[in-house]
Design goal:
Keywords: Membrane, Transmembrane, Transmembrane helix. The chain crosses the membrane at residues 12-30. This protein has an 8-stranded antiparallel β-barrel with strand order 1-2-3-4-5-6-7-8. By secondary structure, it is α+β, with helices and mostly antiparallel strands. It is 17% helix and 48% strand. A hairpin with a 4-residue loop joins strand 2 (48-56) and strand 3 (61-66).
C-alpha cells in the first residue's frame, strides 16, 4: 500500500541518476593515469656518480637524461601502481607510489638490469 505523497516524480529520478553519473565520471577522471615532470636518482658505478633523470609528459612519452644530456626516448604506461616504460630497446617495470612522487625500478631488460632497485623522486 503506497503512502500518499511519497511517489517520486520522474524528473527527480532522472536528476538523481544524472547526479550519480556525474559523480562517477568525475572520480574516474580525477584518477591520475599520466605522469608529468622530471624524476631523478643518483647512480654510482664503481667510483663514477651521475644523475639520471626521466622526464614524463602527458602524451605518454618519456625522455632520459644522464647528467643533463639527452640519452634516450620512449613511451610509458600506468596500470594501477605499475609503471612500465620502454626506452629505446630497453623495457623497464617500476612500482609507482600512491602519491606519484616516487617510483622504484623492479625489473629491466638487457644492460639496464643494474637499475633494479633504483628509486626515482619527483624533482620539485
Amino acid at each position: 500500500m503506497p503512502l500518499k505523497g511519497t511517489k517520486l516524480k520522474p524528473a527527480w529520478i532522472i536528476g538523481i541518476v544524472g547526479l550519480i553519473v556525474v559523480v562517477i565520471v568525475g572520480v574516474l577522471l580525477l584518477r591520475p593515469k599520466k605522469l608529468t615532470g622530471s624524476y631523478s636518482t643518483t647512480v654510482t658505478v664503481l667510483v663514477a656518480t651521475s644523475k639520471d633523470t626521466l622526464k614524463f609528459t602527458r602524451d605518454n612519452k618519456v625522455v632520459e637524461y644522464s647528467d643533463g644530456e639527452k640519452t634516450n626516448t620512449g613511451t610509458y604506461k600506468i596500470d594501477g601502481d605499475q609503471l612500465t616504460f620502454k626506452l629505446g630497446k630497453t623495457d623497464l617495470s617500476a612500482k609507482l607510489a600512491k602519491d606519484h612522487q616516487t617510483f622504484k625500478i623492479e625489473s629491466a631488460s638487457g644492460m639496464a638490469g643494474f637499475s633494479k632497485g633504483l628509486v626515482y623522486k619527483l624533482d620539485k
